[in-house]
Amino acid sequence: MKFVDEYRDAAGVERLVAAIGRLLTRPWVLMEVCGGQTHAIVRFGLDELLPPSLTLVHGPGCPVCVTPVELIDKAVALARLPEVIFCSFGDMLRVPGSKEDLLSVKAAGGDVRMVYSPLDAVALAQRYPERQVVFFAVGFETTAPANALAVLQAKRLGLKNFSLLVSHVRVPPAIVALLSSPDNCIQGFLTAGHVCTVMGYTEYEPLAERFRVPMVVTGFEPLDILQGILCCVRQLERGEARVENAYTRAVRREGNRPAQSLMQEVFRVVDRAWRGLGWIPESGLGLRNEYAAYDAERRFALTVQSRSESGECISGLVLQGRKKPVECPAFATRCTPEHPLGATMVSSEGACAAYYRYRRQAATATPRP
């Protein structure tokens, strides 16, 4: 608890908020790119402590939230097959597809299992050689090394009944898509500390220079986030635009080279659709041809007919930083964690779930736009 308390120190928060206030001479809009940071901001009310001229908007920092409907539908189709044991992290079970979610398939008798590691799925494949075990490989670059390791372990064991349904996404191309939008209003980024722990931040350096936007590697505790905001505001006020590391206790410029090597051995860069953002070139990871035998989409020759998600849901605008969850007419009424209209209300890192958990009463007490 000593470490946690150190980074939630009230006096430190007060000093950083005051320092940010002294720097500000004009309005700025910053985006945090990590759902963990979003939850910390909303939980501790950091945005409400800051001067009104500084606006924080929430980005596509939740990998569960940006997994497209089509892939959820493919997961549901796989989970319905009698020969399949479908494995996933818990957050994915409630994400709505076109018609249903994985939890509904489980309730109807499908063998859907929540696991804590892709290696748990490899162990299941060893235990049940007569069944096909599929793991839903979702996440940013952070979780890709563990999924790559699972594939290599399955190959080493000679398993023929293990595969991945891959939905890995990469952060830098998403930032390019946001900054290239004609209605972009983002002037600075707090980049995800856990992604940079693996990947480092060299990929962000040409982006900061190209778009003239400061990008600060930021952690997850209140003091981490406020320190990241302070660094970003300082650059903006000075007219600077570079990558700055405010999370030095965990992140190095070059990242984790062994983890990167593991990823590069198993995965290749591919184009990927993002829920709420659309098709983004080179924004995903897919299995290399050498590991095609572990690709569930190829193994099962999946084709599904997907419908678009609820027209009432504004999660796409939330993921782009153009709307706050409380601006949705369905928030906390027709859309709740028990009956979600969109993925941002389901995931533990989703912005809508954060507002529902920590600001629901304030939001429902005031008229929405």
Layout of secondary structure:
Elements: H1 2-6, H2 10-23, E1 28-32, H3 35-44, H4 46-49, E2 54-58, H5 63-66, H6 69-79, E3 84-88, H7 102-107, E4 112-114, H8 118-127, E5 132-139, H9 144-157, E6 162-169, H10 171-180, E7 188-192, H11 193-199, H12 205-211, E8 215-218, H13 222-238, E9 243-245, H14 257-266, E10 267-274, E11 278-287, H15 296-299, H16 315-319, H17 351-365
Parallel strand pairs: 1-2, 1-7, 3-4, 3-5, 5-6, 7-8, 8-9
Antiparallel strand pairs: 6-11, 10-11
Would you kindly provide a brief summary of this structure?
The protein has about 375 residues and is α/β, with parallel strands linked by helices.
What would your notes on this structure say?
The protein is of the alpha/beta class and 369 residues long. The chain folds into 2 domains: 309 residues, Rossmann fold (3-Layer(aba) Sandwich), CATH 3.40.50; 51 residues, no CATH class. Helix content is 41%, strand content 17%. It has a 6-stranded mixed sheet, with helices on both faces. A 5-stranded parallel sheet has the order 2-1-7-8-9. Helix 7 links the parallel strand 3 and strand 4. The two termini are 41 Å apart.
Main β-sheet description:
6 strands, mixed
Rounded mean pLDDT is 91
From the spread of the alpha carbons, the general shape counts as globular
Question: What is the number of helical segments per DSSP (H or I, 4+ residues)?
Answer: 17
What is the N-to-C order of secondary-structure elements (H for helix, E for strand)?
HHEHHEHHEHEHEHEHEHHEHEHEEHHH
CATH class bucket of the largest domain: Alpha Beta
- Helical percentage: 40-55%
CATH superfamily of the largest domain: HypD, alpha/beta domain 2
Q: What is the number of E strands? A: 11
Rg measurement, Å: 21 Å
Instruction: Give the end-to-end Cα distance, rounded to a whole number of Å.
Output: 41 Å
- Order of adjacent strands in the largest pleated sheet: 4-3-5-6-11-10
Strand content: 15-25%
Task: Give me the CATH architecture of the largest domain, please.
Answer: 3-Layer(aba) Sandwich
Class per helix and strand makeup? alpha/beta
List low-pLDDT spans: none
Query: How is the CATH topology of the largest domain named?
Result: Rossmann fold
